[in-house]
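Retro notes - structure team

What went well: the batch runner handled both jobs without manual restarts.
What didn't: labels got mixed up in the shared folder, which is why I'm recording both outputs here explicitly, each with its sequence directly above its tokens.

Job 1
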Amino acid sequence: MSIAPDRLSPDQDDFYNTLIQAHEGLSEAQSHAMNARLILLMANRIGDLAVLTDLIETARSYADG
């Protein structure tokens, strides 16, 4: 998958700040659990297994590289 064009502009910084603020005061375990819940909520919103699989493979490629 190629990375999709930026659809957050001009709000990408606001999204990042909101995400970081959501983690403030959480333990590492709580932060990981929140990320997992957020991923599942976003996956439910996307709702397309092929798209989700492609996103997982793309994200994994960054870890492998």
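Job 2
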Amino acid sequence: MTDPLLKEKEQHDVPVTAALHESAGVGITLRTLRESRRISLNEASQRLKFSVRQIEALEAEKWASLPAGVSLRGFVRNYARYLGADVDSVLVLLDNQIGPTAPPSVMTAPGVAGPSVAGDAQLPTTAETSQRSWGWFFIILAILVIAAFYAVDRGWVPESWLIFDWLKAIANNE
């Protein structure tokens, strides 16, 4: 497989001189592509907003010097896109080399069991109601009622707003 990671070879003026093959790692592949385009490390660093040391670590495949997981995947994706490579192929090569870096497909909240590996667990289709939300509702309602009676008692509410006689009596301190 020669030049499998190039999107469109005709798009670039500079031909790729080194043959890329399956045994080459992500770093070697990206370095070869960068050198074939005659792009310096400084140019790539300025364009991608990554330090020269990070790019050198990636090209040297020093995984301990690089972030892990999704951050590494994003770094490799941006670098491959900048070099005009087939991003999906480069990411597959990365996953084959260091293990899966893609985020899990199903996110669950802490303490909530996710679906089982066999797929026999069903996710609820309706939201579960919580009894605590009604408790807070009644507490807030009680505070508002108390504040309203206090405002009426202090005379902060105009008498024209009071529609019940018993509220007018409270306002007049009768």
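One thing worth noting from job 2: The mean pLDDT is 74.
We'll revisit the folder naming next retro.
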